[in-house]
Amino acid sequence: MIGYTVPALLSVPAVVLVELLWLRTGLFRRRAYWITLGLVFAFQIPVDGWLTKLSAPIVLYSPAHISGLRFPFDIPVEDFLFGFSLVTATLLGWTCQDRDRTRTPKP
């Protein structure tokens, strides 16, 4: 399970802690953030479900590297964890970049 599950499990608290303890952008309090996550998952579910369906998979996961939990449509739960972490980390980076840009005086 170390191959994909452990990094996926660790990525979520890592991203959350980076926001709460270091960056403090307030991203988690923004309605737009949660709407964005909803949209991401709304598209991820049918696409990832089609790619990972056990009846005719396009993407194969080694059983030794995942937990085996799949929901919905045979999607490995690790995909949702990494999806959350990657989208959140990207949005945090953009938010910090925008914050830094507005703080820097223009010549």
Which bin fits the share of residues in helices?
55-70%
Order of helices and strands: HHH
Total strands: 0
Main beta sheet: none
Secondary-structure-derived class:
mainly alpha
Shape: elongated
**What gap, in angstroms, lies between the N and C termini?**
53 Å
Q: Kindly provide the radius of gyration, computed on alpha-carbon positions and rounded to a whole number of angstroms.
A: 17 Å
Could you tell me the strand content as a percent range?
Answer: under 5%
How many individual domains? 1
Contiguous uncertain segments of 5+ residues: none
Mean pLDDT: 93
Enumerate how many helices there are, as a single number.
3
Main location: membrane
Membrane topology: Multi-pass membrane protein
Domain Lycopene cyclase: 8-91
Transmembrane segments: 6-23, 32-51, 80-96
Descriptive overview:
This protein is mainly alpha-helical and 107 residues long. The chain has one domain. Helices cover 64% and strands 0% of the residues. The protein is elongated, with a radius of gyration of 17 Å. It starts with a helix and ends with a helix. The model has no long low-confidence stretch (mean pLDDT 93). InterPro entries: Lycopene_cyclase_dom. This is Lycopene cyclase domain-containing protein. Pathway: Carotenoid biosynthesis.
Q: What is the element layout, followed by pairings?
A:
Elements: H1 5-23, H2 31-52, H3 77-103
Helix pairs in contact: 1-3, 2-3
